[in-house]
C-alpha cells in the first residue's frame, strides 16, 4: 500500500482543484464532459500525491484536453429529395498508447459535450483492456429511427466522406455505438473503401464477420459486463444463479447482458427502450426481445402483445423501482439519479454493474457507496466491447479469423484482468474495495507513464 503524507495530499488536491476550475471556466456549457472529468480526476489525488513528477509535467492539464476535435457538416438527401443537414463530430483524445479508438453514436442528443465525455472515458477504458489503443469518440445528431435503409445509407456515405480524412488503420479506428450497428458500419466501411480505392479492413470495427468482422463482437459489451460482475460476486460468495436481475435498454449491450445472465442462472425480469419498460415476473423471453428489436426493429411495448403476463409502462425511470438483486444499467448516460439509486437500495439491490457509459449520476454513485452496494463502474465493466474491437483489429492485421469460442475466452480473460488490476490499484493507493477509484487509477497510470516517456506532445 502506498503511504502518502498529509502535505502531499493537500498539494495534489490543490493542483486538481486549479485544473478543474480552469476547465469549468472554459467549458461551462458542457455539463456531461465536466461530470466525467470530475468523477475521474479527483479519484487520482493519491496518484499525484505519490508522483509529483506528474504535476511537474502538467499531465492533468494535457490529458483533459483532446489532441484534436473535428466538427463537420453532413449534408444528405432524404426520400422526398430534400437536402437535410446534420452535425458530425470526432474527438481524438489520446494516442499515447496506440491509435485513436472509440465508437460512433448517431442520436439526436449528440453534441460536443457528450462526445467529449465519451472520448475522455474511452482513454481509461481502452487502457484497462491492456490493448494498444488510444481514446476517441465520434458521432452525429442524426436519428436513424424512422429512416429508410436508403436514407441511412446516404447519411452514412455523406458522414464518411467527411470523416475519412481523419481516420485510418494506424491513425483512428472508429466502431459502433448507440444508433450505429452492423448495417451502419457496413455503409460506412463501404464508402471509406470506395474513397480510398483499397480494402482496408482495419479502418473500422464492428463489421459483419463475412467481411472482416470478429465473431462475438455484438455480444462483447453485454457479455463483458456480466463477466466483470461475476468476478465481483465471488467476493461475497454469490453467483448469478437464482438472482432477480433488471437490465435497462434493449440494444446490443442489454440483449447480450440478458443472454449471459440467463445462461448463468439469473432471472431477468425487466428491460426497456427509450419509450418505456416491460416487466415480466416469470422472466424475460429473450427470443421475443431479439425478434422485436433485431429483426423487426420494433418497440419494446410489443412484447406484452406476445406475453400477456407481462406489463408495459411508459417512461424509463420506473424500471429501477422493480425489486432486484442485481441492476445492470445498459441504456444511456445518467439514467440512474439519486432518487432511483435510493429506491434500488430500499428494494434490496446488492450489485450495480454499469453496461452503458456513465449511466449513474455522481449523486447516485454516492448512494451506492454510502450503502455498501457492490459497484462495477462503466469504464471497467463495459470495456468488453472495445476489447473485442481491438481483437478484431488484430485479426484484420494478421488476415486471420478466430472462432466464437476463442474470442469469448479471450474476452473473459480480459475482463478478469481488468477486475484484478482495478482491485490491486485501489488497494495499493489506499482505497481497498473501491473499484471506481481502482479502475480510474489503473487506467490512468499506463497512459500517464507513456506520456512522460514520450516527452511533451
UniProtKB/TrEMBL annotation:
Alphabetized Gene3D superfamilies for the sequence: Glutamate Dehydrogenase, chain A, domain 3, Leucine Dehydrogenase, chain A, domain 1, NAD(P)-binding Rossmann-like Domain
Entry keywords, A to Z: Oxidoreductase
Keyword Oxidoreductase among UniProt keywords: yes
Pfam family, one: ELFV_dehydrog_N
GO terms for MF: glutamate dehydrogenase (NADP+) activity
Spans through the membrane: none
Residue intervals of the Glutamate/phenylalanine/leucine/valine/L-tryptophan dehydrogenase C-terminal domain: 214-455
NCBIfam families: PRK09414.1
Family membership: Belongs to the Glu/Leu/Phe/Val dehydrogenases family.
Assembly mode: Homohexamer.
Protein name: Glutamate dehydrogenase
Lineage: Bacteria, Bacillati, Bacillota, Bacilli, Bacillales
Amino acid at each position: 500500500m502506498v503511504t502518502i503524507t498529509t502535505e502531499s495530499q493537500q498539494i495534489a488536491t490543490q493542483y486538481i482543484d486549479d485544473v478543474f476550475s480552469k476547465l469549468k471556466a472554459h467549458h461551462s456549457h458542457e455539463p456531461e464532459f465536466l461530470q466525467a472529468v470530475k468523477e475521474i480526476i479527483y479519484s487520482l489525488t493519491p496518484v499525484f500525491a505519490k508522483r509529483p513528477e506528474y504535476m511537474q509535467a502538467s499531465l492533468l492539464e494535457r490529458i483533459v484536453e483532446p489532441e484534436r476535435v473535428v466538427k463537420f457538416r453532413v449534408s444528405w438527401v432524404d426520400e422526398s429529395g430534400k437536402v437535410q443537414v446534420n452535425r458530425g463530430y470526432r474527438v481524438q483524445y489520446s494516442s499515447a498508447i496506440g491509435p485513436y479508438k472509440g465508437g460512433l453514436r448517431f442520436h439526436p442528443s449528440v453534441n460536443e459535450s457528450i462526445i467529449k465525455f465519451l472520448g475522455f472515458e474511452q482513454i481509461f477504458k481502452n487502457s484497462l483492456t491492456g490493448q494498444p489503443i488510444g481514446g476517441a469518440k465520434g458521432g452525429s445528431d442524426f436519428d436513424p429511427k424512422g429512416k429508410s435503409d436508403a436514407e441511412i445509407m446516404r447519411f452514412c456515405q455523406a458522414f464518411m466522406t467527411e470523416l475519412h480524412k481523419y481516420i485510418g488503420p494506424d491513425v483512428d479506428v472508429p466502431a459502433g455505438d448507440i444508433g450505429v450497428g452492423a448495417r451502419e458500419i457496413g455503409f460506412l466501411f463501404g464508402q471509406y473503401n470506395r474513397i480510398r480505392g483499397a480494402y482496408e479492413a482495419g479502418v473500422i470495427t464492428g463489421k459483419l464477420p463475412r467481411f472482416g468482422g470478429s465473431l462475438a463482437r455484438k455480444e462483447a459489451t453485454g457479455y463483458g459486463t456480466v463477466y466483470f460482475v461475476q468476478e465481483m460476486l465471488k467476493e461475497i460468495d454469490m453467483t448469478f444463479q437464482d438472482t432477480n436481475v433488471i437490465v435497462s435498454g434493449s440494444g446490443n449491450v442489454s440483449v447480450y447482458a440478458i443472454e449471459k445472465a440467463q445462461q448463468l442462472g439469473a432471472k431477468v425480469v425487466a428491460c426497456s427502450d427509450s419509450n418505456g419498460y416491460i416487466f415480466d415476473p416469470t422472466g424475460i423471453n429473450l427470443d421475443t426481445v431479439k425478434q422485436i428489436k433485431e429483426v423487426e426493429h420494433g418497440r419494446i411495448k410489443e412484447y406484452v402483445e406476445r406475453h400477456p403476463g407481462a406489463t408495459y409502462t411508459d417512461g424509463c425511470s420506473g424500471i429501477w423501482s422493480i425489486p432486484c438483486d442485481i441492476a445492470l444499467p445498459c441504456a444511456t448516460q445518467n439514467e440512474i439519479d439519486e432518487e432511483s439509486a435510493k429506491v434500488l437500495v430500499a428494494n434490496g439491490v446488492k450489485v450495480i454493474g454499469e453496461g452503458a457509459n456513465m449511466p449513474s449520476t455522481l449523486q447516485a454513485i454516492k448512494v451506492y457507496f454510502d450503502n455498501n452496494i457492490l459497484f462495477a463502474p462503466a469504464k471497467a465493466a463495459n470495456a468488453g466491447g472495445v476489447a473485442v474491437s481491438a481483437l478484431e483489429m488484430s485479426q484484420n492485421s494478421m488476415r486471420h479469423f478466430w472462432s466464437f469460442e476463442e474470442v469469448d475466452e479471450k474476452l473473459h480473460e480480459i475482463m478478469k484482468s481488468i477486475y484484478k488490476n482495478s482491485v490491486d490499484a485501489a488497494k495499493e493507493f489506499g482505497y481497498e474495495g473501491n473499484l471506481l477509484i481502482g479502475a480510474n487509477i489503473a487506467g490512468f497510470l499506463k497512459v500517464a507513464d507513456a506520456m512522460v516517456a514520450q516527452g511533451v506532445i
